[in-house]
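G.,

No rush on this.
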Amino acid sequence: MAIDLNAEALAHLPQGVEGPAYDRAALSAGIVHIGVGNFHRAHMAVYLDRLFSTGADHDWAISGAGVRAGDARMREALERQDCLTTVVELDPAGLSARVTGAMIEFTEIDAAKLIARMSDPAIRIVSLTVTEGGWFVDAKTNGFDAAHPDIRHDAEHPDAPKTAFGMILAALRQRRAAGDAPFTVMSCDNLPENGHVARQTVIGLARLADADFADWVEANVAFPNTMVDCITPATSDRERALVRDRFGIVDAVPVVCEPFRQWVLEDNFPQGRPALEKVGAEFVTDVAPYELMKLRILNGGHAAIAYPSALLGHHFVHDAMADPRIKAWLEALETREIIPTLEPIEGVDFEAYRRKVEERFSNPEIGDTIPRLCFDGTNRQPKFVLPVIRDALSKGQAIDGLALEVALWCRYCAGTNEAGEKIAPNDDNAEDLERRALAAKDDPQAFLSNEAVFGDLGAQPAFVAAFSKQLGALWTDGVAATLSRYARG
């Protein structure tokens, strides 16, 4: 008989399920985390749970928070189970389950209450996981989107903000007025230079309302860069049933994830930090090289397999990786064109990291899907692929495979797979992308002229020529033959 997850259940968890090896009643919050989704609970919360189990840093527990309707639903579910989460690691060698207890509360979804919580001097870090698109970045300039309606509202009503960033600023104003030290703002989102993006958004919003206060934030608030990594699928009835039937726990919002985790942080925490290095996190002076490695090899790798896999009819990522055409294409692209754009990192073997990424993609237990990898190419291509092309061009390196990746995205956007079956729209700009992709059969520039995606890259002759060649091959020879030709060299 499965047991309901709550604090009382910790005393009699089913055999084989680990629980917190510490007294949760002795924990106190030192971190407010905004955006308590699956990734946060599979990553940051697990690191802290493991740290607390060593007996260290019990004043760094998590106070959950959110600002969206979905956060309210998560809060309701977690409150019912005393903020506990079952985390299942999907290791092909054998699944394991752990109940984590690093979160001790979840603030009501109310701006005033969240501001008050962040104003407490005991809170020394405010961290956020608000998705790649939640940072108010202008797609054309990559700068702060000062024209967004929510940003305009917060600039005009700083005491009644709608956004997490407006609430952060309101709390910082209160702390400044009280003479309390400011908290550190830490992004945990999968963004290049996420600390710089956080700084840009917070200070950009502050400057719209109060230049003097913006100067104070700029001079006194730390925004460390971080690199985060752990493949974490969405939770559905399938995962809830797995936790109930396999591990004997009824959890409304369990998390399943791969057994691999990585967290590299810039060591810039003026008000202190938990000793996460004791449980595998890495603190460095410069995160950028590690971040670039991950963004290009892992995220770029996801982009590389997404579109050919969809065009060849694969649904699951592990099935795509079992297709020798996809596996050979990925290995050739990463080895020949992606890894050569990276500068060496002392103590890091890029080829070993690439092999680990390939192993992770091939894990059948994760159940990650090709439609998820294909989602939102309009935002993902400029983050994970196009910068690699720009870098390779600047260094005089090969881009044939990288151009093929973009051509595969274009071919996918045309709306049918190789069997002629319709591909469901998977991008907010799907209609425009399909129109451009179909026109590109005869005029490749029709796709590359999308300046919101390509900027000036779409007019660079070397890239235009390589893209045109590869797109023509895809329409003439087909996906399989074009991939194989590239993999053979």
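When you get to it, here's the other one too:
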Amino acid sequence: MEFDEHLYDLTVIGGGPVGMFATFYAGMRNLDTQLIESLPELGGQVAALYPEKIIHDVAGFVPARGADLVENLKRQLFEFKDQLAIRCGEEVTAVEKQADGTFILKTAHRVTHTRSVLVAIGSGAFAPRPLAVDYDHQLDNRKVFYFVKRVADFADKEIAIAGGGDAAIDWALTLEPIAKKVHLIHRRDKFRALEASVERLKASSVELVTPYNIKQVVDQPAAGLVIQLQVAKGDDQQTLTVDSLLVNYGFTSDNRVLKKWGLPLERRSLVVDEHMQTAVEGIYGIGDAVTYPGKVKLISAGFGEAPTAINHLAEALYPERKQPLHSTAIA
């Protein structure tokens, strides 16, 4: 166990896109900052699960892969690499407020001391919602997939995608140009996605299989992956035979670490004020980890919350510094 005697101005917990940008912005404000990320690499869920997903909703970022967004954020962040401490593969196990208002943070590797904390851990630990039918799980990552790591793996294949949200539609549109055929299975005729994406879907060659539920998935080596479907609220059935099934029912998330740290929660999220500060003075939160009236869970929204939090805590730490009035450039 290493005991770091240095007192940081700020510790950002979470190295996903929002945490990375917040750390970069802290560098812009000349704050002595460390970034702690539990995964081995920066990028969070986008890097781990969606490196080839197309990102559409970040201002000024021409739609490109999640991996490109993460790489651009890294390049931006590393402009301040000499004045930032970046620690990957370390999970914060405790956040303890001291009598003087500072905080002690503990991981399995070290104990550090910081004047303020910014929580940017997203929705916490995550796991895909599985198919609600029993099937041979030896098919996972061979013919049944919950993530797409390489789009090229689906080239010239017939693919079924299960789901009706933004992720399912995004993958259907992404895979359409390279797959032999894409089928989208959803239990309703309406989709829970951005209107522009739904319009593109309806204008595409993706076959919409609605309103159907998956009742059985069986691998028949001579034929392929056989999916038994039943119409919602009815008895009619049909069979779909494909090469691969991509399941996009969303994720279950677990932010119980916040409760372990003793932070006040509302429905498993940090409640923050207009400055993105929690009920604990000196602890802030941004991104999908937080809630407030009108909260929108988008990467772009988290990017906007970062300067709000950083500027407020910078003024609290250094009252003599003036808050920037405009966007700035690095010389």
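The chain has seven helices and 24 strands. The radius of gyration is 22 Å.

Enjoy the weekend,
O.
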